[in-house]
Amino acid sequence: MTAADILDLGRNVLGDGLVFLGAFATLVGAIGLLRLPDFYTRAHAGGVTDTAGAIGILVGLAILSPDLLTALKLLIVLVVALFASPTSCHALARAAFRSGIRPALDGDRPPPPQPGE
After folding, report:
1. What's the CA gap between 111 and 40, in Å, rounded?
2. DSSP letters for 77-111
3. What dihedral do alpha carbons 41, 47, 50, 56 form, nearest 10°?
4. % of the chain beyond a pLDDT of 70
5. Residue 48: domain span
6. Which of 6, 42, 78, 104 has its CA 20 to 30 A from that of 95?
7. Does the residue 103 lie in any domain?
8. Alpha-carbon gap, residue 54 to 45, rounded angstroms
9. Assigned domain for 81 exists
10. What is this structure's pTM?
11. Closest Cα to residue 28, out of 51, 5, 8, 6?
12. Which secondary structure element, helix H or strand E, spans residue 117, and what is its range?
């Protein structure tokens, strides 16, 4: 086994591992969307795991890509996703709060009254 074969094997193991971790993070987020109790916890689970999943999958695919141009394109998509995903999650949560959806506080207790209600 030559040094080039060892480096190629290491690249494949690292890339596959990152893709697997990203897919696992995305799966955990999908389960969180189904299991969590209210909109805000679901939005948090979806936003955080979506970003973590995108990092793992896109970096893993960039490592596995056959040429440098493809890897650079994947990393550009990653940078866009790193800005777009948290921003869109924040915008959704803010719009939900402004439309009257209040977060659940301390289990079954209703949220405190808001000023002007």
Report:
1. 14
2. HHHHHHHHHHHHHHHHHHHHHHTT-PPP-STTSPP
3. -110
4. 92
5. 11-98
6. 78
7. no
8. 14
9. yes
10. 0.81
11. 51
12. none
